Amino acid sequence: MSDLIDQQALTSKAEQLVETARKLGADACDVIAVTGTSLAVEVRDGKVEETERAEGGDVTVRVFVGKRNAAVSANALQDPEALVERAVAMAKVAPEDPYAGLADQDRLLKELPALELLDETEVSATELTEWAKEAEAAGLAVSGVSKSGGASASWRLSGAVLATSHGFSGAYVASRHGLSMTAVAGEGTSMERDYDFDYRTFLEDMESPAVIGRRAGERTVRRLNPRKVETGTVNVIYESRAAKSLVSHFSSAVNGASVARKTSFLKNKMGERLFAPGIRITDDPRKRRGAATRPFDGEGTAAEFLQMIEDGVLQNWFLDTAAAKELGLTPNGRAQRSGAGTSPGSTNLTLEPGQKSVEQMMAETGRGLLVTDLIGHGVNAVTGDYSRGAAGFWYENGEIVHPVSEITIAGNLIDMFARLVPANDLDARYSVAAPSILIEDMALAGE
């Protein structure tokens, strides 16, 4: 199946463009080519609503002339020399950027590691349809579910090639499989909906369609007849699915580019204790079958395993070459291609689990809010102020009492991180992974 993406041809084309740029006067150059093919099926009420197959790709040529640089992208290469000519001409008149440039040559990856990125299992539209129908049927079979919000199944191959003028040339292909189902319960203004899903690199790791559909239905029915709760200070447990958002906020705050621009609320916190003792957050670009696993970063360097938080203390920023130069630090292989250049970012970022179950946390805290869904993007990246709409369940004496909706939870992320307690139910499937999280004494706006 990997022959659907011709890595050899893409690599050869990228290397030719690099050579052309050098001949036209570029001091340095890199070329990244990205291509992909995908198949997706959407089903509703047992019938196929849409089947979509897509193929495409683009190439970006980035050239450096002295301290000036420019990049040009195209989705086809009928005239690749003209593309490079335009990039070189643009670079010659661009403003100088003292931090832009290729990665140091001694940091380039010398040998591509063998990683589990590609599942060669062939997937057809017929199989995707069957999986989606099975998930939908399982969701509809749950007592209380009134109708389907649809089910979808997908498969994708994506390939990336990077070639640079100082000797790097590498390529890889990755696969991705997905399945989701949305269920609806209730009628009219009392209608509720929820969903369940799974996305994996290897098909054999996917949960069964019946499990995904049934769980979507059960989650939906649990949300019926929600109530508001009184405004006050409450204990909040973020379900694992919602807890990932807190780790994402942390990731954005330790992005080296944000730190250099002084737009991060953690900009002066390196080496300080942000979390409780024992808390660990790691970033692993070579995680087995990980959602963001990759052999090299967007600059062709080997990305190392990073301890972002060790025993509660901030240890690293995410750094590409430009951000590292601006901060006077050493890059750590976290370059991601972004428009005309690169920007730093995480790979497989994980908040390591704690010792207690969610049930234990509910029992010990007595009463509070179990958050299963978050709404809006109310986070101030500069100050860390946090305010988001939420839905979930109110618990008393450690037991779920009733669903809750139309509330807002608020705080400041620095204070929230300091009080954060991870549960033991880590969901490690995704590029940002977290267990459920307890944060005591948060502000809640309700009735």
Structural overview:
This protein is of the alpha+beta class. It folds into 2 domains: 2-219, PmbA/TldD superfamily (PmbA/TldD fold, 2-Layer Sandwich), CATH 3.30.2290; 226-447, no CATH class. 23% of the residues lie in helices and 37% in strands. The chain has 9 helices and 19 strands. It has helices at residues 7-23, 80-93, 125-140, 209-222, 240-253, 256-260, 321-327, 358-365, 413-419, and strands spanning 28-44, 47-65, 68-74, 145-164, 169-185, 192-200, 232-238, 281-283, 306-310, 313-314, 335-338, 341-344, 349-351, 368-375, 385-396, 399-412, 421-422, 432-433, 437-445. The strands form 4 sheets. The chain has a 6-stranded antiparallel sheet. A hairpin with a 2-residue loop joins strand 2 (47-65) and strand 3 (68-74). The longest helix is centred in the N-terminal third of the chain and has 17 residues, at 7-23. The mean pLDDT is 94.
